[in-house]
Amino acid sequence: MSALSLPHRTLGRTGLQVSTLGYGGIDLRGLPVGRHLASDEADRLLNTVLDEGITLVDTSIDYGLSEELIGRHLAHRRDEFVLTGKCGCAPGREVFGLAPARTPHDYRPRTIRAGVEQSLRRLRTDRLDVVQVHRAPGRSVLERDDTVAALLELKEAGKVRFLGVSSELPEIEEHLAMDVFDVFQIPYSALQPEYEAVVTRAARTGAGVIVRSGAGRVLPRPAGQADGGRQSYAEAWRRSGLDGLRGAMPPIELLLRHLLSRPDVSTVLIGSTDVAHVRENVAAAQRGGLPAGLYQAVQVATRAATSAGG
Asked: What's the predicted TM-score (pTM) here?
């Protein structure tokens, strides 16, 4: 158990109290796209997550073994954490099935209901605290497919407590305008300043904000950049000018504490299959946000890099 507890924030109008770090279950997905964990490894990892004070766990049907492992190893501690899942994903095989990484999503009621029911079985729980429309399409598709109506039926049945959406620009602007989502999951970091205003607007509506990809993964390249595609965080870091600001602070800690400096961010997801890495992130989060002067210097540096075209 950590010597210090993690700070908690309110997940917007849901009223749920969540730790400033959440655990993202994507790294539990297993082969062929991730490291396969033996049962005892998964048990140690997931129980360490809770023991270290993390009280939000995020997963998805799309994440291969993730739901099965969370259900197997954390169901006995279900009341200790907020559980957030996804919908729109194609339901897969019942026992340790791996859906293809790019399985087409379907936002019609039948798939929404089947997916949530499957998640409940795999996670060994009777409710998802938040279900988020995954890789959410634009408003016209959600309205055509009656996606929200299906989610509201599940909420009425007590299988879902709150509705959320996990999306990116530009679709997220339409999701904000719909005024139906209690939680927004947004890919934001100091290396993605284009999402800063979206985070602010989402929080001002009263929604909770879950940040993903805050200190890892890959980023879309800036619009119009000649080489197109995606860039690594290492590449984005080199372009950012942040290395000269961090002093002895590891880059991941700087990025994480930059996010925790923002009161409109409810929680930041970390993903790892390494117990030591989880504990390092918890220790960083316990130190809180960046000193005000350093936070402002990060803001200036990343905006300047963006204005210069990366």
From this structure: 0.91
